[in-house]
Design a protein that fits this description.
Elements: H1 3-14, H2 20-27, H3 31-43, E1 63-71, H4 76-84, E2 91-98, E3 105-111, H5 114-124, E4 130-138
Antiparallel strand pairs: 1-3, 1-4, 2-3
Protein backbone atom coordinates (compact mmCIF):
# COMPACT_ATOMS: atom_id res chain seq x y z
CA UNK A 1 0.00 0.00 0.00
CA UNK A 2 1.38 3.35 -1.01
CA UNK A 3 0.00 6.87 -1.29
CA UNK A 4 -1.53 6.17 -4.72
CA UNK A 5 -3.42 3.15 -3.36
CA UNK A 6 -4.76 5.29 -0.50
CA UNK A 7 -5.92 7.94 -3.00
CA UNK A 8 -7.66 5.28 -5.09
CA UNK A 9 -9.39 3.92 -1.98
CA UNK A 10 -10.55 7.39 -0.97
CA UNK A 11 -12.03 8.03 -4.43
CA UNK A 12 -13.79 4.67 -4.51
CA UNK A 13 -15.05 5.06 -0.97
CA UNK A 14 -16.75 8.30 -2.00
CA UNK A 15 -18.03 6.88 -5.32
CA UNK A 16 -17.78 3.11 -5.76
CA UNK A 17 -18.99 3.44 -9.36
CA UNK A 18 -16.15 5.74 -10.40
CA UNK A 19 -14.58 4.37 -13.56
CA UNK A 20 -10.92 3.49 -13.82
CA UNK A 21 -10.76 6.14 -16.55
CA UNK A 22 -12.01 8.84 -14.15
CA UNK A 23 -9.61 7.72 -11.40
CA UNK A 24 -6.72 7.79 -13.87
CA UNK A 25 -7.61 11.37 -14.88
CA UNK A 26 -7.88 12.56 -11.29
CA UNK A 27 -4.59 10.95 -10.23
CA UNK A 28 -2.76 11.53 -13.52
CA UNK A 29 -1.90 7.83 -13.84
CA UNK A 30 -2.60 5.56 -16.82
CA UNK A 31 -5.90 3.65 -16.87
CA UNK A 32 -4.14 0.25 -17.15
CA UNK A 33 -2.06 1.11 -14.06
CA UNK A 34 -5.24 2.03 -12.14
CA UNK A 35 -6.92 -1.17 -13.32
CA UNK A 36 -3.95 -3.22 -12.10
CA UNK A 37 -3.89 -1.46 -8.71
CA UNK A 38 -7.66 -1.83 -8.17
CA UNK A 39 -7.50 -5.52 -9.11
CA UNK A 40 -4.67 -6.02 -6.62
CA UNK A 41 -6.62 -4.19 -3.89
CA UNK A 42 -9.58 -6.49 -4.58
CA UNK A 43 -7.43 -9.64 -4.61
CA UNK A 44 -5.87 -8.65 -1.28
CA UNK A 45 -9.37 -8.15 0.19
CA UNK A 46 -8.67 -4.48 0.88
CA UNK A 47 -11.62 -3.59 -1.35
CA UNK A 48 -14.33 -5.92 -0.07
CA UNK A 49 -17.10 -4.71 -2.35
CA UNK A 50 -18.93 -1.74 -3.77
CA UNK A 51 -22.16 -0.24 -2.52
CA UNK A 52 -24.77 2.34 -3.35
CA UNK A 53 -25.39 5.51 -1.36
CA UNK A 54 -29.06 5.40 -0.37
CA UNK A 55 -31.40 8.24 0.52
CA UNK A 56 -32.98 6.41 3.44
CA UNK A 57 -35.51 9.18 4.11
CA UNK A 58 -36.96 8.57 0.65
CA UNK A 59 -36.93 4.83 1.38
CA UNK A 60 -38.98 5.24 4.58
CA UNK A 61 -36.18 4.94 7.15
CA UNK A 62 -35.33 8.58 7.81
CA UNK A 63 -34.54 8.20 11.51
CA UNK A 64 -30.96 7.28 12.36
CA UNK A 65 -29.78 6.59 15.88
CA UNK A 66 -26.83 5.33 17.85
CA UNK A 67 -27.63 3.07 20.79
CA UNK A 68 -25.09 2.32 23.49
CA UNK A 69 -25.54 -0.81 25.61
CA UNK A 70 -24.14 -1.94 28.93
CA UNK A 71 -24.19 -5.70 29.29
CA UNK A 72 -22.91 -8.36 31.62
CA UNK A 73 -21.74 -11.37 29.62
CA UNK A 74 -18.88 -13.81 29.31
CA UNK A 75 -19.48 -14.13 25.54
CA UNK A 76 -19.72 -10.82 23.70
CA UNK A 77 -19.95 -12.52 20.31
CA UNK A 78 -23.05 -14.43 21.39
CA UNK A 79 -24.58 -11.28 22.91
CA UNK A 80 -23.96 -9.32 19.72
CA UNK A 81 -25.43 -12.13 17.60
CA UNK A 82 -28.57 -12.14 19.75
CA UNK A 83 -28.91 -8.39 19.25
CA UNK A 84 -28.46 -8.39 15.48
CA UNK A 85 -30.96 -11.24 15.10
CA UNK A 86 -33.73 -9.04 16.54
CA UNK A 87 -36.31 -8.35 13.84
CA UNK A 88 -38.45 -5.22 14.09
CA UNK A 89 -40.50 -4.43 10.97
CA UNK A 90 -39.32 -1.12 9.47
CA UNK A 91 -36.10 -1.01 11.53
CA UNK A 92 -32.60 -1.94 10.38
CA UNK A 93 -29.58 -2.54 12.59
CA UNK A 94 -26.80 -1.28 10.31
CA UNK A 95 -23.81 -1.98 12.54
CA UNK A 96 -23.11 -3.61 15.87
CA UNK A 97 -19.76 -2.75 17.46
CA UNK A 98 -17.98 -3.90 20.59
CA UNK A 99 -16.51 -0.71 22.04
CA UNK A 100 -14.32 0.50 24.88
CA UNK A 101 -15.20 3.06 27.52
CA UNK A 102 -18.34 3.49 29.56
CA UNK A 103 -20.43 1.31 27.23
CA UNK A 104 -19.84 -2.24 25.95
CA UNK A 105 -21.73 -2.34 22.65
CA UNK A 106 -22.78 0.33 20.16
CA UNK A 107 -25.46 -0.03 17.50
CA UNK A 108 -26.12 2.16 14.49
CA UNK A 109 -29.72 1.83 13.40
CA UNK A 110 -32.27 3.21 10.92
CA UNK A 111 -36.01 3.38 11.48
CA UNK A 112 -39.13 4.90 10.01
CA UNK A 113 -40.79 5.87 13.30
CA UNK A 114 -39.66 6.10 16.90
CA UNK A 115 -42.05 3.32 17.95
CA UNK A 116 -39.73 0.91 16.13
CA UNK A 117 -36.81 2.07 18.28
CA UNK A 118 -38.95 1.56 21.38
CA UNK A 119 -39.75 -1.98 20.20
CA UNK A 120 -36.03 -2.66 19.67
CA UNK A 121 -35.26 -1.49 23.22
CA UNK A 122 -38.03 -3.70 24.59
CA UNK A 123 -36.61 -6.74 22.77
CA UNK A 124 -33.01 -6.02 23.78
CA UNK A 125 -33.95 -5.66 27.44
CA UNK A 126 -35.32 -9.25 27.32
CA UNK A 127 -31.81 -10.57 26.62
CA UNK A 128 -30.06 -12.08 29.65
CA UNK A 129 -27.24 -9.81 30.76
CA UNK A 130 -28.61 -6.60 29.21
CA UNK A 131 -28.16 -3.91 31.86
CA UNK A 132 -29.01 -0.56 30.27
CA UNK A 133 -29.32 1.37 27.04
CA UNK A 134 -28.58 4.96 26.00
CA UNK A 135 -29.93 6.24 22.69
CA UNK A 136 -28.96 9.28 20.66
CA UNK A 137 -30.92 10.30 17.57
CA UNK A 138 -28.76 11.57 14.70
CA UNK A 139 -30.12 14.96 13.66
CA UNK A 140 -27.92 15.47 10.59
CA UNK A 141 -24.67 14.32 9.08
CA UNK A 142 -22.02 15.67 6.76
CA UNK A 143 -19.89 13.48 4.56
CA UNK A 144 -16.30 14.72 4.78
CA UNK A 145 -15.91 14.16 1.05
CA UNK A 146 -18.65 16.75 0.45
CA UNK A 147 -16.54 19.52 1.99
CA UNK A 148 -13.23 18.71 0.31
Amino acid sequence: MDDVDHKILKLLEHNGRMSHEEISKRLNISRPAIHHRVAKLEQNHIIKGYCAEINWSQAGQGIQAVIFLNVHTKDFNDMMEQIIRIQIPGLTIEKCYRVTGQWCIMLKIRAGITDQITALHDEMLKIDGMLETFTMLILSDTDKSQIE
